[in-house]
Design a protein that fits this description.
nine-stranded mixed beta sheet, alpha/beta, three-stranded antiparallel beta sheet
Length: 473
């Protein structure tokens, strides 16, 4: 048996003992993206040493490798053979290169470097500070609220890139004739979003919507540009043909594609137009074929409330997820009737019961957490994952650059064509919206609720002082 590698094996064992004896050698404070301070990088002239440490039957062979030994904060001591991307991440950090400079040198999109560095963070090789998108210490938080609900890991831009639409729904909240977004301006927004998310230590997501975002003349180029910046991409749109779905997936499969139904066939087609119901069912089959996660959204009104659960049964094997938002009586939606507040608790309870028996249904409405709380069942994230997420873990940008805390009500907080996303986010208007209503200021479940500001606005209430009219707490 060849013993030439035993010295290397013993040194690796020593590294392992050292890293295992310190309960957390990475420390508590991380000021920026940095190399894990516990990292030991060893070049060896034998391949298979880490396998040999686990199994004495493995016989290493001559050949150069690099061995990493470090403490992964998420998984504990770790020793492994370095992959090429591990070494590249170490090189970038050791040389103090910015992702943009590393991308320039490598001739790749900057998002390629961002993804590489993020993977190194995910496996503990690099350390990044915690998310800076978090609720303030003064934010109400009752007993049993998971700390995960207090800080977001993803910031989403709901991006209305065009007002053009092939439908004219009876509850549409904005048919204003805004011009389509200039493509060059869109690229600047994407660069700004990427920079903002890096500064806040969160992942960035773009949910392309409109109107119908696929009608935007430069949609595929803009979609590609978002992917090139390592931004997660989703689509909130209408049914589309096979050709455009093939082109989208050739760039990158969206994390989800959201479409809407407003009830069973007759009622849906009354709201969204003749033939829409059947077209959408066929489109869901197309999404399944391309392995795209499908989300079906319904706008809950007085007229369709009793159609929700029958529709859920119809969608049981056709969609990945089905849920609803309550109607915000805004825009053309003001001509419809929202659900009666006195009827809502019973409906929400029936809906949650159905969720336990139909895996296409998902809890979403913030007020459903009241029922969960009373029953001592686990709370969920509510509308946006953190209760009302308006101007917290998302906001909307319109084709002309207007930024709104929530697209379902007038909630202007700035203009992304004239100011940085970070400036808008940290501005006083955005802070006011994410604080929510004073009526919820002392509620134990505020981090996963806060009602719906858009619904309150539609009922003519003061959204900053009065609570959601359907709240039954």
């Amino acid at each position: 048996m060849n013993k030439a590698y035993h010295q290397e094996l013993e040194l690796l064992r020593q590294y392992w003992r050292e890293i295992s004896q310190d309960p957390d050698p990475t420390g508590d404070q991380v000021n920026g993206l940095s190399l894990n301070p516990s990292l030991k990088l060893r070049q060896v002239e034998w391949r298979g040493l880490t396998a040999r440490l686990k199994d004495k039957k493995v016989e290493p062979a001559p050949g150069r490798e690099f061995i990493l030994t470090y403490y992964d904060p998420a998984g504990g001591p770790l020793q492994k053979t370095a992959a090429d991307n591990d070494l590249l991440a170490i090189k970038i950090m050791a040389e103090g290169l910015s992702p943009a400079e590393a991308a320039r040198q490598g001739g790749v999109p900057v998002g390629t470097i961002d993804r590489l560095l993020q993977a190194a963070v995910d496996n503990g090789l690099l350390l990044r500070p915690p998310s800076a998108i978090r609720r303030p210490p003064s934010f109400p938080r009752g007993k049993g609220i998971d700390p995960a609900f207090m800080a977001a890991q993803v910031f989403t831009l709901q991006w209305h890139i065009t007002q053009s639409c092939d439908l004219h729904c009876r509850h549409c909240y904005d048919r204003s004739p805004r011009p389509a977004m200039p493509y060059d301006q869109g690229l600047r927004v994407l660069d700004d979003l990427r920079e903002f998310c890096l500064e806040k230590n969160v992942r960035g997501q773009v949910s392309f919507t409109g109107g119908n975002p696929l009608l935007y003349p430069h949609f595929l180029k803009l979609y590609q540009a978002a992917v090139d910046r390592n931004l997660q991409v989703a689509i909130l749109g209408n049914p589309a043909d096979r050709g455009i779905i093939e082109k989208i997936c050739a760039i990158q499969t969206p994390i989800f594609y959201q479409v809407s139904l407003e009830g069973l066939a007759a009622h849906n087609d009354y709201i969204r137009g003749a033939g829409h119901f059947q077209r959408l069912l066929k489109f869901l089959t197309l999404l399944q074929e391309f392995n795209i996660y499908s989300v079906v959204m319904l706008t809950l009104t007085r007229a369709n409330m009793e159609q929700v659960l029958p529709l859920a049964e119809l969608l049981r094997s056709r969609a990945d997820e089905f849920t609803y938002n309550r109607l915000a009586m805004v825009g053309e939606g003001a001509n419809l009737q929202s659900v009666r507040p006195e009827d809502y608790e019973n409906f929400a309870a029936r809906y949650l019961t159905a969720c336990r028996h139909n895996n296409v249904l998902r809890p979403k409405d913030n007020l459903q957490n009241i029922i969960q709380h009373r029953a001592n069942r686990p709370l969920f994230g509510g509308c946006a994952g953190y209760g009302c997420g308006a101007a917290f873990n998302f906001f909307a940008i319109l084709p002309d650059g207007e930024a709104h805390a929530c697209r379902k009500l007038p909630s202007y907080i700035g203009n992304a064509f004239k100011e940085k996303i970070g400036h808008i986010y940290d501005g006083e208007p955005a802070r006011r919206y994410r604080q929510g209503s004073e009526a919820c200021a002392h509620c134990d479940i505020r981090p996963v609720c806060g009602g719906c500001l858009a619904v309150s606005h539609g009922f003519g209430l003061n959204i900053f002082t009065e609570k959601d009219p359907c709240c039954f707490l």
